[in-house]
Specification:
The protein has 608 residues and is an alpha+beta fold. 19% of the residues lie in helices and 37% in strands. β3 and β4 form a beta hairpin. α6 crosses α11 and α8 runs antiparallel to α11. The structure holds zinc ion. Zinc ion binds next to loops.
């Protein structure tokens, strides 16, 4: 994951200087990542190390502040200021201190420990990391709220293709010829300044959006206002041909109300359709209009799909995640749309043409976003889709400069580490007749995964033996593929299953990863007839063992792929994670795991 990447680049602490060649480091964007307490100074040019001379750190008092002078740097944007609601950092200011120096000033508490700060260099970005510092700011503003009650929220009408991740590379060439995004960028330029919540004190209505202007420019018809704009599904009407967008929960300013403008054969106007709904009507021969949202979520550009050229690029350059958030930083303001579907949520990044697949995958690997998929929006950008459970709450936030998106997930059952529930010790009973194969993975010279003198084969055998004992006590016939430390080949394990006329097959394994932080429980199945068996057992393990739920996966493991009866392979934890290894080596977790597996098997048998 990305943190590992960072540590490679951590190269200086306070008081040190770094030496680079003498080119100028042009800072073209500054991003805050308040979830991870990072300040990111990015250049759109080449690498940081080749462009920056040195960083000098100093301390000033009254008020106490710490500064970094980035010599050989220029700020290609105006001075930036952020105020924090934090006990450590009160304010951060970035400005051009003199023609060749950019100064970053952190206004800190009097007893701020400067060893909490480190500088990280990565690609085109210099990152100031504030370790253990809680930054709370208004950097991210909410752009999307997932409300079940609001039906018909309309965010975009572009179809998402089924292209896989590899196809994204070919998107670049497709974009060369036909590209809407410079238009979009230009249309919104100067509009990324965030206005805080609607200032509509004199309006009696509780409204989310106040429409202040409707104009046409070279790029399309631009509707602007204050607040969060949402659109309902458009209607196309004839005689004359027109497209109608209703804007719920909105009010139109009096000076533009019902004033029709006509430019080059296209007429448009916005009226108050009802007390809390405005209506935009575009009358034109060609009514193929798509709404594209501005980076600040306060404007919509209605683009006619028949007219779109250009080449400005935006790239997703960096990814962060924590327990419930996934943040993507871009090198230019992102134009996006978010919508909830029956399966989950879709985030369309209209002007984003490249992303770092490896960093992306690493960042989401262990997060609630790990099922998020990237696909191509042909000629337009990228689309992220995330399947969601019904009760999951999704919110979208946009960075104040439009160059970061924060996706936030709450109530995701599968990722929350639940406190160990008090499951009553119900006697397990099975009254029918069943034969279950219990397979302890590996054995003999095949150790499975090994860490710190702990062997997977031993843990597997211990748990499998307990499972067999539990099942036998409950009246199930059990056959173990091995009951001692011996080697059994994979085909032999499968033969044991078929030769015994088994009804179910369960294989017990311990997981391992090169990343020591990874932990949790996985259940694998391969054949479709094994899915509900996998789900039943997995749920029992998660409930009883109460460790990280990594999910149920379809995986082509030999033993579950070659067995005809419902067959699953349980990875009961990670031997590569110190905590989990110690737990798995001890009796309690093994017992709880075995109990849960037996419970799941009996539950499944009784359901059948
Ligand atoms: Zn194994």
């Amino acid at each position: 994951m990305f943190r590992r990447l960072f540590t490679v680049f951590i190269f200086i602490f306070l008081g040190m200087q770094m030496a680079f060649s003498s080119e100028v480091f042009k800072i073209t964007s500054i991003n805050l990542d308040t979830s991870n307490s990072l300040i990111l100074l990015s250049s759109s040019m080449s690498q940081v190390q080749s462009e920056m001379n040195n960083v000098k750190i100093g301390v000033l008092s009254n008020p106490k502040r710490l500064y970094f002078d980035l010599k050989g740097a220029t700020l290609n944007i105006g001075p930036q200021n952020w105020y924090f609601n934090s006990k450590d950092i009160k304010q951060v200011r970035v400005s051009q201190f003199n023609p060749e120096t950019v100064r970053v000033v952190l206004y800190t508490s009097d007893n701020f420990d400067k060893s909490k700060i480190s500088l990280i260099k990565s690609d085109k970005t210099l990152i100031i990391q504030l370790k253990d510092v809680v930054c709370e700011t208004d950097y991210f503003q909410q752009v999307y709220t997932d409300e079940k009650t609001s039906s018909g929220k309309y965010y975009e009408n572009l179809s998402i293709s089924d292209t896989d991740i590899n196809a994204i590379k070919s998107a670049e060439s497709a974009i060369e010829s036909q590209d809407i995004m410079k238009q979009v960028q230009n249309a919104f330029s100067g509009q990324t300044v965030v206005q805080k919540k609607p200032i509509i004190k004199d309006l009696k209505l509780k409204t989310g959006y106040y429409i202040t202007s409707l104009t046409m420019n070279n790029n399309g018809i631009l509707l602007s206002g204050v607040g969060e704009v949402t659109l309902e599904k458009p209607m196309i009407l004839s005689n004359p041909k027109r497209i109608v967008f209703d804007i719920p929960n909105s009010i139109t300013a009096y000076n533009i109300l019902n004033k029709t403008k006509t430019v080059g054969g296209v007429s448009f106007r916005v009226g108050q359709f009802s007390t809390s709904k405005s209506r935009l009507v575009i009358t034109s021969e060609n009514v193929d209009y798509s709404p594209v949202y501005s980076p600040d979520g306060q404007s919509v550009l209605f683009i006619n799909n028949s007219s779109m050229p250009t080449q400005k690029r935006n790239n997703a350059v960096r990814y962060y995640k924590d327990k419930s958030n996934f943040i993507i930083s871009f090198d230019a303001p992102v134009v996006h749309g978010i919508k909830r579907t029956s399966e989950g949520v879709v985030v369309n990044l209209y002007n984003t043409y490249s992303f770092n697949e490896k960093d992306f995958n690493e960042a989401i690997a262990q997060s609630p976003f790990r099922q998020m998929k990237v696909s191509l929006l042909p000629k337009v950008g990228l689309s992220l889709s995330l399947p969601l459970e019904k009760n999951a709450v999704f919110n979208g936030y946009l960075g104040a400069d439009g160059k970061a998106i924060k996706l936030s997930l709450k109530n995701v059952q599968t990722k929350i580490e639940k406190p160990k529930p008090n499951i009553p010790e119900k006697p397990l009973k099975f009254k029918g007749k069943a034969i279950v194969i219990v397979d302890a993975g590996h054995g003999g010279h095949d150790y499975g995964a090994m860490r710190e003198g702990v062997n997977e084969k031993d843990i597997n055998l211990d748990i499998a033996t307990m499972v067999a004992q539990n099942l036998t006590k409950s009246g199930v016939n059990v056959v173990m593929t091995r009951d001692s430390d011996e080697f059994i080949s994979l085909p032999d394990r499968v033969s044991i299953c078929s030769n015994n006329n088994a009804d179910l097959f369960v294989s017990v394994h311990v997981n391992a990863s090169v990343k020591p932080e990874i932990n949790g429980i996985e259940t694998h199945y391969y054949n479709q007839n094994s899915l509900s068996f996998a789900n039943t057992v997995h749920e029992c393990i998660i409930n009883r063992v109460a460790k990280k739920d990594r999910g149920v996966f379809k995986s082509k493991f030999y033993v579950i792929n070659h067995t005809e009866v419902p067959a699953i392979l349980v990875e009961v934890g990670f031997i590569s994670n110190e905590t989990e290894r110690n737990e798995l080596a001890a009796k309690d977790r093994k017992q709880a795991t075995a109990k849960a597996i037996s419970e799941g098997i009996i539950k499944y048998l009784n359901l059948k």
